[in-house]
Amino acid sequence: MPATALKFGITLPNYGDYCGFAGNLAELAFEAEKSDWDGFFLFDHIQYSQTESIPMADPWVALAAIAAKTQRIRIGTLVTPIARRRPWKLARETATIDHLSGGRLVLGVGLGDPVDAEFTPFGEDSDARARAAKLDEGLEILAGLWSGERFSYKGRYTTVQAVQFLPRPLQTPRIPIWVAGRWPTHKPFLRAARWDGAFPLGKVVGSKLNPDELQAVTGFIKAHRTDVSHFDLVATSGAEGLVADEETLAAYAAAGVTWWMQDLRKWRNSHDELLTRIRQAHRPYQ
Taking the model in full, what pTM does it have? Predict the structure, then answer.
């Protein structure tokens, strides 16, 4: 992976007393762009808990509002569970938002969790192997439909019969796809090596990896990918949202990280807290 300067993004949940509303998320993205962040990314949940009822925004409607409200920053999801989506519908949504944003969309993908809240209650297959297979099929379908050419596909779970989707996304060769996974499980990173980026997560939900662990991810990707000149490796501050200092960020960059994501989920219920962190926490070492 190339030795380039780190880019800095914000990740926010699409749920909470403040973040559960699309208009609020668009306002935060606007403030992030004003404060010189490089990216603004949303979780993609449909129901985070079976026992707790909380406000929740549809991430794709919110991203449309964000695209219209901003001009420069990268936007997208971290992450979309394709196993509970219809890939052709997602292809339309992503291509539309890529055009609306002027070619700024990134699609983060993964298996999705929590399974007992987001899959089982709706009759979706909760088996991890089935969800992984649906993810791989969905990615192939997305790439095929984004091509703008006539496309057919026959998989175990999905079928597409000779269709053509226009317009194709603005970005070439496609909208970037970042694949999430919990390191050191290797299968998600074999998948990531076939696409455009990796978003490694710790074993525990909300935890982060240290630079040594991310260096191992970099080595694994390099061993399973011919061209590493255009590949993103994403690190996160973790659910506590702690701001990294200059020395720590330099260590992440040396490990091959290209994006540092400031996770602000802890403050999802507070407009004032979110604004404070968006306006003050950017690039603390500069």
Answer: 0.95
